[in-house]
Design goal:
By secondary structure, the protein is α+β, with helices and mostly antiparallel strands. It folds into 4 domains: about 160 residues, no CATH class; about 70 residues, no CATH class; about 55 residues, no CATH class; about 100 residues, no CATH class. The chain contains 16 helices and 13 strands. A hairpin with a 5-residue loop joins β1 and β2. α2 crosses α4. The longest helix is centred in the first third of the chain and has 31 residues. The termini are far apart. It comes from Trujillonella endophytica. Pfam families: DUF222 (PF02720). This is HNH nuclease domain-containing protein.
């Protein structure tokens, strides 16, 4: 099935297959992956039962998998618990061993083996083996969603009069910060909480779409989540803790702040992320920022007070003048936007209407990473790509070279 001549040769072989042959190979590889996962689960189960980790001085198989195999804590725990659950799920175990279902299917079916569910089934005379066989059949021949619904239906019927679960105990959000400052989130919400969050994110993601938007649905939702945070911070609705309101904080060296060529580790945020100088300037462009600018010898030169860079009256003027994001093709409303300094204040740019323009969070980042905006004497905004070409939207604009105007000139003070 697999070529031994290296990945390049195997890719050439795959390109030579017909669509039917290629899909057959994918199916075979998925089955093989499931089979390997089943063997691993079985081996871990035996090692767990024998407490084999003690051989290497460790107490549990979870800790052994983390330290000796480099597995993440959730993955190691899931692997061990999957093996224990299969002791009560022979039909599921057989389908898993045959490669017909994957680890995700086993994890979903294993929900029925929680001690309280097993006890309830025994009290009601439920044949757990029959339920296992039925669920294994569904997992083998139907989409995963059908299996999840079947498991949920079984558990609901098992305890129809049980107490309504506490939504707070059904919710979990983990935030993992990586060495480069990026963040991975995993959330689990109850049905009502999930509906609320989905309603907000989907509406914001839909409203943020603009011409030539090539973001995936996942990227649009992630941008909406950040926009949600921006709106909350801007509205000042974050709780006060220890006499301080949660905010964005940054520490940056003075040389990095004014040097556009500075590398990726020029600044550090309050939660420990590292930023480039460009990102630091973007962050400080229009936010309530607690900034500390450090000198070349490490001494603090500026402990910038927490002040709004663009004062409220001026911001109101920008809202009226620009009406929303001025980036070509974007129709984000003004309440989603930040006030961008065309010439950054770190380089002497004034906080005046002629040096300011509204940009949504996404396009503010674009402008701090290569794109450029400019307002002509007639009040029309122009957007330029990193290569210097102007971003024009309509066919008549492409023919005439005239950019569509944005904003209302009569609102700009003389």
């Amino acid at each position: 099935m697999c070529s031994t001549d290296g990945p390049g040769a195997d890719e050439e072989r795959l390109h030579a297959l017909t669509d039917a042959e290629l899909l057959a190979e994918v199916a075979a590889l998925v089955a093989e992956q499931n089979w390997v996962a089943a063997r691993l689960t079985a081996a871990v189960r035996v090692a767990d039962a024998r407490q084999a980790a003690e051989h290497d001085g460790l107490k549990t198989m979870q800790s052994w998998l983390r330290t000796h195999c480099g597995m993440k804590r959730p993955a190691a725990s899931a692997l061990v618990h999957r093996g224990r659950a299969l002791d009560l799920l022979p039909a599921t175990g057989a389908a898993f061993a045959a490669g017909a279902i994957g680890a995700d299917h086993v994890t979903e079916i294993a929900r029925i083996t929680a001690p309280q569910h097993v006890a309830a089934a025994a009290e009601q005379g439920v044949d757990l083996a029959a339920v296992d066989a039925a669920l294994a059949t569904i997992a083998t021949g139907r989409p995963f969603q059908a299996l999840a619904e079947a498991v949920a239906d079984y558990l609901a019927r098992l305890d129809p009069d049980g107490p309504e679960p506490d939504p707070a105990r059904q919710r979990a959000l983990t935030i993992a910060r990586h060495p480069d400052g990026t963040v991975t989130m995993h959330a689990e919400l109850d049905s009502v909480g999930g509906e609320k969050v989905t309603a907000v994110l989907e509406s914001m993601a839909a409203a943020s779409r603009c011409a030539a938007d090539d973001r995936t649905a996942a990227q649009r939702r992630a941008d909406a989540l950040v926009q949600w945070a921006d709106n909350t911070l801007a509205a000042g609705q974050v709780p006060t803790l220890r006499t301080r309101r949660s905010q964005i904080a940054a520490v940056v060296g003075v040389d990095a702040l004014v040097d556009p060529a500075t590398g990726k580790t020029a600044a550090r945020t309050g939660f420990g992320a590292t930023l480039s100088a460009a990102r630091a300037r973007w962050l400080a462009c229009d936010s309530t920022v607690a900034r500390v600018v450090m000198g070349t010898d490490g001494e603090p030169l500026d402990r910038g007070r927490e002040v709004r860079i663009v004062p409220a009256p001026l911001r109101h003027l920008l809202d009226l003048r620009d009406a929303g994001c001025v980036f070509a093709g974007c129709d984000a409303p003004y309440w989603w936007c930040e006030a961008h300094h065309i010439l950054h204040w770190a380089f002497g740019g004034e906080t005046e209407p002629d040096n300011l323009g509204l940009l949504c969070e996404r396009h503010h980042g674009k402008v701090h990473h290569g794109f450029r905006i400019e307002r002509d004497p007639g009040g029309a905004w122009h957007t330029y790509r990193p290569d210097g070409t102007e971003l024009l939207l309509h066919r008549e604009d492409l023919l005439t070279g005239k950019a569509p105007s944005k904003g209302q000139d009569l609102l700009v003070p003389a």
